[in-house]
From TrEMBL:
Topo IIA-type catalytic domain ranges (all copies): 2-187
UniProt keywords, alphabetically: DNA-binding
InterPro entries attached to this UniProt entry: Topo_IIA-like_dom_sf (IPR013760), Topo_IIA_A/C_ab (IPR013758), Topo_IIA_A_a_sf (IPR013757), Topo_IIA_dom_A (IPR002205)
SUPFAM superfamilies reported in the protein's UniProt record: Type II DNA topoisomerase
Gene3D superfamilies: 3.30.1360.40, Topoisomerase II, domain 5, Topoisomerase, domain 3
Gene Ontology molecular function terms on file: ATP binding; DNA binding; DNA topoisomerase type II (double strand cut, ATP-hydrolyzing) activity
A Pfam family per the record: DNA_topoisoIV
This protein's name: Topo IIA-type catalytic domain-containing protein
BP-aspect Gene Ontology terms: DNA topological change
């Protein structure tokens, strides 16, 4: 295809190439650039330590890296709301146990109970349906006397209402991950707008 060439390059590249007659008829500039391989695709591998810190991962594009990171990070958002749900359920049961003690008039019984073990047994019996653990029972046993008041009872009822609403919200989020994605996006956008000072 190439018949001859003349290289007149000095301070700049100047090469004249002669083709066989009719060989390049109808060529465009892009055809010539492609023929001489003057255009090359530059690739770059992105090598990072994976999110667990135990392995090395390679990515072809930055977009792949970001997508993988977002998918990994989203898993922690789901875990966050699962933990909030579990913690809320735990606190709700505790508050319901306190309310049950109020409703069953535990404060008036305390003067007739002989020792701490008997108080523990009484509270365990009263709060059986809430499946309180030892720590929660102990918290109720160590309730100061002044906390067995009408004011505390009302506070307990208010907290139960708050914990139920929070539990319902977390349960809704755990059932619908699209809502968690919205929260995730909003938090990323707010981080982008933050001014970090060194």
């Amino acid at each position: 295809m190439i018949r001859d060439f003349i290289d007149r390059s000095t301070n700049k590249i100047d090469i004249e190439i002669k083709f066989k007659r009719g060989a390049i008829e109808g060529w465009t500039e892009d055809d010539a650039i492609g023929f001489f391989k003057l255009r090359t695709k530059k690739t770059e591998r992105i090598v990072v330590i994976d999110w667990s810190g135990n392995a090395i991962r390679q990515y072809e594009t930055a977009e792949e890296l970001v997508k993988d990171f977002v998918d990994w990070r989203f898993g922690y958002y789901v875990l966050r709301y699962q933990k909030l749900y579990d913690d809320t359920s735990y606190e709700l049961r505790y508050q319901q146990g306190i309310k049950e003690c109020f409703d069953k008039d535990l404060p008036s019984m305390l003067t007739d109970i002989k020792d701490k073990e008997a108080v523990v047994n009484k509270i365990e019996k009263l709060t059986l349906k809430f499946k309180l653990d030892e720590k929660q029972i102990d918290r109720i046993v160590n309730f100061p006397t002044y906390r067995w008041s009408k004011e505390s009872y009302q506070q307990c009822k208010d907290k139960i209402k708050e914990w139920r609403a929070a539990k319902k919200e977390y349960n809704m989020l755990l059932k619908n991950h699209d809502e968690i994605w919205k929260i995730f996006r909003d938090e990323v956008v707010s981080l982008r707008n933050e001014k970090f000072v060194k």
